[in-house]
């Protein structure tokens, strides 16, 4: 059985940081070999998708980073910068651990 995981990245910021975060996440998924993996006997494919608005600006405190949501888990991250991509991919996608310093409680 195959499962998809998606990282939805908000690109609604004027600075364009969301697009940069999405590119960095895609690069890291490929670099770390985690675009396709097996988790608990299931094949999991991870894709990065951009979207207009996640309605998280208030929670994200309008910082210089982007908001993103990981599905199907529903984990929400805020103020994510391109330099956070390697850690997010390694920890959340690779090890299944939430990156607490970027995590937003919803």
TrEMBL record:
Q: Which domain of life is it from?
A: Bacteria
- Which SUPFAM superfamilies is this protein grouped with? Thioredoxin-like
Protein name in the entry: Ferredoxin
């Amino acid at each position: 059985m195959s499962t998809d995981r998606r990282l939805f990245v908000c690109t609604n910021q004027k600075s364009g940081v969301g697009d940069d975060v999405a590119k960095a996440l895609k690069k890291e998924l490929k670099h770390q070999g985690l675009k396709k993996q097996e988790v608990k006997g299931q094949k999991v494919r991870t894709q990065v998708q951009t979207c207009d608005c996640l309605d998280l600006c208030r929670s994200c405190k309008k910082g210089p980073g982007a908001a993103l949501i990981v599905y199907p888990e529903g984990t929400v991250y805020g103020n994510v910068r391109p330099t956070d991509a390697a850690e997010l991919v390694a920890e959340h996608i690779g090890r299944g651990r939430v990156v607490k310093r970027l995590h937003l409680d919803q």
